[in-house]
Amino acid sequence: MAMKPGGKEQGGWASARTKEIGRHRIAVTVNGRRYEREVEPRLLLVDFVRDHLRLVGTNEGCDTTHCGACTVLLDGHAVKSCTMFAVQADGSEITTIEGLAAHGRLHPLQEAFRENHGLQCGFCTPGVVLAASELLRVNPKPTEEEIRVAISGNLCRCTGYVNIVKSVSAASRAGGG
Ligand code: FES
Ligand code: FES
Fold this sequence. Notes:
It contains six helices and five strands, in the order αββαβββαααα. By secondary structure, it is of the alpha+beta class.
């Protein structure tokens, strides 16, 4: 880089300033564990979860808010994590698919998807399961139509949705939210 008069001092100041304003310290609780990290303001939440925390069960399909593969629970609500920045999640509680199973047992939704063949390739499944878990939390006995509406932001290229709906219904009957 060409040095202008006084550039060394200015460049030094500028790069220090870039560093200072270029990163933000955030604290989030993910699957019950607290993390503090310095991140760039433009870092997407999905990339924070996958690349910084190495929780790769959250998939990244489109990066444009269409597919829902990146769905996580943010303070209990299903959100597409490619649609927000990590800094926007500062102070929040996040649940990823890795946080659903407890004490070595599958979550009732995971069990229901397994039992009812609710997945094929599985790429959409973490997002679908998390979207369904919010549904069953607020509406433990949803109709088929309510299930279809709840997962309408989650695209599946394999199943035709029939067994996904069946799985969520089965989890509902089993009392799993
Ligand atoms: S990767 Fe986020 S909606 Fe597709
Ligand atoms: S199971 Fe393959 S995309 Fe849904």
